[in-house]
Each structure stands twice: as structure tokens, then as C-alpha cells.
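Human: We require from you a standard protein entry with sequence in single-letter code and fold as C-alpha cells, and nothing else.

Assistant:
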Amino acid sequence: MYKVIATDLDGTLLNSNHQLDPITVETVRRLEAQGVQFIIATGRHYCDAAGIRDLLGIRPYLITSNGARIHAPDDTKIYADDLPPVTVRRLVQPDIAGSHGRIIVNLFADQAWLIDRDAPQLLSFHQDSGFRYSVVDMPQHDGTDIAKVLYIGGADDLAHVAVNLQREFGNSLYVTYSASDCLEVMTSNVSKGRALSFVLDRLGVAPSHCVAFGDNMNDIDLLETAGHPFMMNNANPDLIARLPDVPRIGNNFEAGVAHQLRKLFALDGELTS
């Protein structure tokens, strides 16, 4: 019945330290060996997600930057949708991001993570992949080759950014939260759900044979697209309110996805923790 498993990373497959639990690694390896196809669907950069994939020891499809990039299991890029350069150049300006300087502005280029200042505290989120940023002069960037703009900051500051984005761009961009302190911007054609549909069509698998896991607002249409969606118990309350009928499972800090997969595929008692 279940042929494909699509899962978010942070707050979902990864634990509270943004790392993989051993039982998660063992579970996904066992299921892939049984012929189940995995899809990682994340807001993270492709290079970052690829590093986590390598530690998992499986060959999934990678949906990254919330769907702005899709890579096949052999690392071939099969889909890309960049923000227009003129839009990127506006998105990094102080009148959008805030002249107070409290917002950390990030750009996800094809092979690089660009940031407007040194922020070593962010590197703890990338322990498994080893992914690192490069500091650049944002107003001088030409805006090309950018899949995603990411604003990191406090809730009130990000709310003001969201108002600025709506005022200037309306619905011409896809704006979503991946965490309470992360506001992300992609083209309006991009989402995890659209990317999941793209991969399922490529595989020739109906959504009714797909299981999906998520925890935040950027997972909404991923969960709406899959035939068998599951929401983490630690999910954003706004996501719970938006999708009240999606079953909730364990917490990410208790390897909730791995335990749910063991139930769905009757693997209880076969794996070691």
C-alpha cells in the first residue's frame, strides 16, 4: 500500500539537536532495502540536505529550498525555479528586511549559502551535514541563481517583514514560515506539495500510495498532497489548526517518524534502538 515516504527534516525526521537518531537511520535503511522510495522535502539547501542524506545511507529524491530545487537519487538536478534577480535585489534591501539590522538575511544559491553577517550560532543546525555559509555584501549581490531568500529573526520583526512583502509583492511570491524564527521566500510556483507531485508523477506512483510527515507551515501542501499524511505532535499550533484532520504522531525528539514507520510497515520488534 505504501510505496513512497516523503518527510521534512527539522522538527520532523531530525531530533531537537537537528541530528539523526540511530533508530531513524536504521529504520529508513531497512525500508529502502525493502523497496520503499524515500523523498526528503525540506527548506534546507540542497548541499545541506545531501549531507544529511549521506548519513542516512539511503538514496532519496531531494526536494530542497521548499521545492525550488529537486534532485534525483543520482544527484541529477531535475527541477529548478529561481527568484527573478530584480526581486532578489529588492528582498535584501533594508526597507524590506528592516533598517534596524536585527534580521539576518540569507540567500540560497545553487551551490552556496550566502549570509549578510557572521552568525556562528546557526552552524549548530548543520552539525550532521557540515554545511557552511559565506558572508557577502547583500546590497551588492546581482540577484542571480537564487532559489530562496531566508530571513531569521524575532517573531515581531519577521511579522513586519511579512507585511512589507505583502505590501510590495502581494501574492506574486510564496512566503512561508519554516520555524517561528525563519521566514522564507520563493517564487509563487514553488512549494513542497508541488514538488512532491512532480516526483510522484516521475515515479508513476499515485498520491494514495504516499506517506508524508511534517511539522510546520511550509509543510501544509506536502501533507495535503500525500494520501497518508502525518503531523508531528510537536507541530506548529498554526499547522494543527490549519489541518485538524491530519493524524498527529510522536515528537521529533523521540524519533516519532521512525516509530510511526515501524507501525505502518509492521517492523516493531525487528529493529534495534
Q: What stands out?
A: Residues 113 and 133 are 5 Å apart (CA to CA). Residues 4-80+190-264 form a domain with the Rossmann fold fold (CATH 3.40.50.1000). The mean pLDDT is 96. The two ends are 26 Å apart (CA to CA).
